[in-house]
Amino acid sequence: MKVILLKELRGKGGEGDVIDVAPGFANNYLFTQGYAIPATKGNLKQLEQRKHNIAKREENRIAAAEQLKAQLDGTKVKVDVQVGEEGQLFGSVTAQMIADAVQEATGTEIDRRRVELNRPIKVAGLHDVSISLYRDIKTVVKVQVGDVVEEPAEATEEAPAEEAAAEAQPEVEEAATEDAE
User: Fold this and answer.
1) What's the rounded Cα separation, in Å, for the pair 11 and 25?
2) 128 near 144, Cβ under 8 Å?
3) What is the C-alpha to C-alpha distance for residues 134 and 62, in angstroms, rounded to an integer?
4) Threshold 0.85, pTM exceeds
5) Residue 147 CA neighbour count, 13 Å, CB half
6) Please, which residues have CB within 8 angstroms of residue 131's CB and are 6 or more apart in sequence?
7) Measured in whole angstroms, how far is the alpha carbon of residue 3 from the centre of its chain?
8) Cβ pair 135, 13 in contact under 8 A
9) Is the pLDDT at 29 greater than 90, yes or no?
10) Residue 93 has what pLDDT?
11) How many other C-beta atoms are found inside a 10 Å radius of the C-beta of residue 115?
12) Handedness of CA 20, 26, 27, 32 (dihedral sign)
């Protein structure tokens, strides 16, 4: 079934594109969500009249995406998370966390669905994350994931006890060497 897209549909096309899709997909999703209209003779004629307006909007969107890419390219953001001793995270860094960190650092709002994480970030350090701004326009943001944070309370209580045991041990060894003489 041929339809005319009214909005960008990721992976299918942009506004004004005539695409061929399954009838069920068109009837159950595209038409009900306002993404498309049927490609009838009347609708195709209207599309020809609107092509100029669609082209202007497309140019504006591309220019805005290029400007945003220039602003974000190479930006370094920090995501604070709790990290264990070996650099392993307690959980993982999500696309929403990265989008929030970018907004906090630059003041630019990024949709979390545009953040492309190939696999979850579960290790502390510096990671390159790709953000899709518009169609083929992408930028890379460097994400610094947390510093090593020690366990609260328990680690601080155990450390003095271990130090006291280490201090007591040389005295025992000295006493043993004096007895042996």
Assistant:
1) 14
2) no
3) 7
4) no
5) 2
6) 72, 102, 110, 114, 115, 116, 138, 139, 140, 141
7) 32
8) no
9) yes
10) 92
11) 20
12) negative
